[in-house]
Amino acid sequence: MSAIARVALLVIGNELLNGEVQDCNLHTLARRLTQQGFQVEQAAMVRDDPPAIAASLMALLAPRPDVLLVSGGLGPTADDCTLSAVAAALGRPLLETPAARQAVESAYDRLLAAGYVPQRGPEEARRKMSRLPEGALPLFNPVGVAPGVWLEQGETILICLPGVPAELAALLEGTVIPQLSARFGRQAWAEGALVVQCEDEANLAGVLREVGARYPEVYVKSLAQPFPAPGASSVENAALRILAAAHAPEVTAAQAQVEKALRTLESVCAGVGIPVLRREGITVQPGAR
Hints:
Alpha-Beta Plaits; elongated; alpha/beta; Molybdenum Cofactor Biosythetic Enzyme, Chain A
């Protein structure tokens, strides 16, 4: 597949919207998928409320993304209602699935052998984590118990992952990214940065506009710094970072695009009297066919 696969994200949890837990899953998903050559186009966060989950799900599915990744709400408690909401939204029954039950029992085998739990969870809790929307496949959870879910809905692959960050990361790296890469291929990714001396980000607006127009395939973005507190020196706040990043079919092409943009940034900054303090090295992620 030559085009970049388009991704939407849905993060679920009362604890996130109450501010009790600071979300890191959205950052993990967006950053790792971008680095792996996918394009994250939209994201949403919603409470553990079935109608709200269903409404957000359908809104994110409407533009027909290639992939919709959902995190949270797969566990054994009553507020873990993601899969029932997904099933209702898509008009599919929620069924006990032998493969999912096997994944749950295998997870308990591992936890019991390691001495992490004294016994298996209650039967109903294990049955709950084994119920998937019709047609879904379980994704074995190598850290926790509740399996992830892979479900194809029209042109979109819908993937549900646990909300516990360590479990999400393990499934993302070990299963999701490899399977998505096998399905879509992936573009290479390159990213570099300049650090310039600029007390006011507004002075960079023209620079970024000029460079962005010359290299529309490169994402160019300044990262604003806070202004210093009254009476404090502005020197520490004057170092401002400018990112340049690009996807391309081959890593050499992505790297070359970023290199050209950074060189032009250096030249344009010098032309308007903005000192370049240093250039950060270009990091790359190779693509896959």
